[in-house]
TrEMBL record:
Protein family according to the UniProt entry: Belongs to the HSF family.
N-terminal signal peptide: none
Chief location: nucleus
Protein name: HSF4 isoform 19
An annotated Gene Ontology molecular function: DNA-binding transcription factor activity
Pfam families: HSF_DNA-bind (PF00447)
Organism, as annotated: Pan troglodytes (Chimpanzee)
Stored InterPro entries: HSF_DNA-bd, WH-like_DNA-bd_sf, WH_DNA-bd_sf
Gene Ontology cellular component annotations, sorted alphabetically: nucleus
Entry coiled-coil feature ranges: none
């Protein structure tokens, strides 16, 4: 009397959920339960070595008790802490939220720039590694040229053997560029 059990989730989603909700998605139902303070019951078997039935799921709430209907008024949707008692955003919290959003936006821009730089470095490395294969002699047996789809058209000079590949100075100044040590001659 302190929890409820769904023994067949797929059947529950197909037959029961559409009667009470606009969807038949079990994950959405579980999300709603969590917003109302219900928690999944984890049995000893689930935390230990024994495996319970995978399709069984059980939920409980401290105010969801058989025969104690007066407690049901305590089962309420959780309200974000950024809102006041009247449901409106408090100006100080709204300002803080906007400031955090701006910080996140700047971080996204920085990460995009770093990703672009890394993409260019990887493109140059691929050109250096596979350039000799593309420029090598092609025999009638059908060795095909390796087609690379790289954003930039500039490529490393094709060395005669696999040795060093000179990279543009800008790449060497890139904080994300890692250059392997050259063998001593």
């Amino acid at each position: 009397g302190t929890s409820f059990l769904v023994s067949d989730q797929s059947r529950f989603a197909k037959e029961v959920l559409p009667q009470y909700f606009k969807h038949s998605n079990m994950a959405s139902f579980v999300r709603q339960l969590n917003m109302y303070g219900f928690r999944k019951v984890v049995s000893i078997e689930q935390g230990g070595l024994l495996r319970p039935e995978r399709d069984h799921v059980e939920f409980q709430h401290p105010s969801f008790v058989r025969g104690r209907e007066q407690l049901l008024e305590r089962v309420r949707r959780k309200v974000p802490a950024l809102r006041g008692d009247d449901g409106r955003w408090r100006p100080e919290d709204l300002g803080r939220l906007l400031g955090e959003n701006e910080i996140l936006w700047r971080e996204v821009v920085t990460l995009r720039q770093s990703h672009g730089q890394q993409h260019r470095v990887i493109g140059k490395l691929i050109q250096c590694l596979f350039g000799p294969l593309q420029a090598g002699p092609s025999n009638a047996g059908g060795k095909r040229k390796l087609s690379l789809m790289l954003d930039e058209g500039s490529s490393c000079p094709t060395p005669a053997k696999f040795n060093t590949c000179p990279l543009p100075g800008a790449l060497l100044q890139d904080p994300y560029f890692i250059q392997s040590p050259l063998p001593e001659t």
